[in-house]
Design goal:
Layout (H helix, E strand, L loop, with lengths): L12 H24 L1 H4 L12 H10 L10 H7 L8 H11 L10 H10 L1 E5 L4 E3 L7 E7 L2 E9 L4 E10 L4 E2 L1 H6 L6 E4 L3 E7 H7 L1 H16 L9 H10 L1 E5 L4 E3 L8 E7 L2 E14 L2 E6 L10 H8 L4 H10 L4 H5 L11 H6 L1 H9 L2 H16 L31 E11 L4 E2 L8 E5 L3 E7 H6 L5 H12 L3 H28 L13 H7 L4
Antiparallel strand pairs: 1-8, 2-7, 3-6, 3-8, 4-5, 4-7, 9-17, 10-16, 11-15, 11-17, 12-13, 12-14, 12-16
Helix pairs in contact: 5-6, 9-10
Amino acid sequence: MAGRGGAKKELDPEEQMKRKFRAKCLFRALGRLVMANTYWLAEAVDHYEGVEDVKRRVEQAVRGKAKKKQLLNINDKALLNKHAEERTDQEKKYIYRIIGGLKCFKRYPNHVKKKLAAVTYFKYYSPGRTIVRQHHEAHALYFIVTGDVVVSQMIFDELLQKYVSVDIGVMHQGDMFGEVSLLHNIPRTATVTTTGHCELLALMKEDFKNVLQASVQKQWDEVRDAMSAFTYFDALDEVARREGCIVAKMKSYEPNETLLGDGVGVANFVYFILSGRCQMIETVQVVVTTHLGKSYYALYDPYVPKEESEQDFDQKYFGAYKNLNKESKESRPSTASEQEGPAPDEVPRTSSILKQKKSTSVQADQAEPAEKRASDNSESSNMFSMKSQVLFQPSEQTRPSVRLSVIPEVQEKPANLRTYFMQVCQLNPGSSFGFGENMRDRRIVALTPVDCMLLPKIWLLQRNTANIWTRIQHYLEKKIPTKKQLFKDFVAHRRWQEFREQMVTDVISRSNTVNWTSVHDVPYSIRMEEMLDI
């Protein structure tokens, strides 16, 4: 008999199995989530050494352990895991004060930070975990709070005829990834994997459209406009331009600020000047000597190697002029001393240092009988003519060991050494540098406010259409004067300055009028332009 509420409807066995399976999957997912976050959940737990020693435990508890300084504590992480709609205004203000000081949010204005504080979530990933996978649908944007991640792509290998994973870069604390897919509504372009314990702040797709899309789009448009200003990037396709927008950096410099050189600047990046002017300055060390009232100048540069002539180059790398030396030596009448010793080609050339240090061995050779040396030479010639595996027989003759040092001797600087700073060239909008040209004793300083676009050199070399970047580097090395050319210009300028001063002195001495004008009567602007030392 049916009850008052009627007969209870029985579930279909298949539907019942589906519900059980779904509940089982949810429970497993919850367990995996708890296990994954155990690392940061157990941060506040104190671990004592010497469990059985009660006195030691009390001392540790009273003294307190020096905890590692962290950007986010356990309470902050728990608050960032709270749903955005459940956060109060007081909690949002507190989160804003926290994330406002993080490195990954310093690029955004305050009103954007306040919006991010209301919708960002804390995420933790253990070592070796994949955060996003290539060709998958995008759901969030990530900011790295602590840890490093590796960015890789699946590229088809023509040799192996299959897709292989290639690492294309490493991202560190303060970097952002995942904005490309959200901004262009495309699948993930790369795979991101953690290298260690990694803490992130995630911004969901819907919140990205409302909060950050306008700011990110503005940055992308800025880089796109900068790339379009240079004809070098006209041959790039849409995918390459998109990658360029990801890896590019926009930097601004104030007047008299160093862009590159003196340990300043971004390493392995190429600079493209968008606006402003800057100059390349080189340090030139000159030895100044005075003789009979006249100054003489000599360039001091201990790092410049000795110049090789064409004959030295051919002899060093191509073995040239060997036969010529043999013929010249064979044509000369041989003396008795030359006939007694071995052939010149068999004796290695030694430096004067070796000759001085081997004086004792030479005296010992002279003391030996001539018959014994002649027999030794005949035996050695027969030994070299035989086809044997033994190349050199052990010699009973003892010689003092000679040790040559490969460390160059430290040269003392002359007492009358002076340092001058010379302008090598000026760089205007449209110029580029940082391709690997010689920057020894050089630095690039801004003359006016300068805006630059920086691109990784490795990324440019991977897209070296028509060998354009190598040609630009070769052009810069040819056009920028060397240190010796700058020294010649320096000497010519000094000679002209001395001649001009002497000419003015001669003209003034011929007149009978008394001239009381001194250097101090010259305006400061002219003195600064003429570089007069007062």
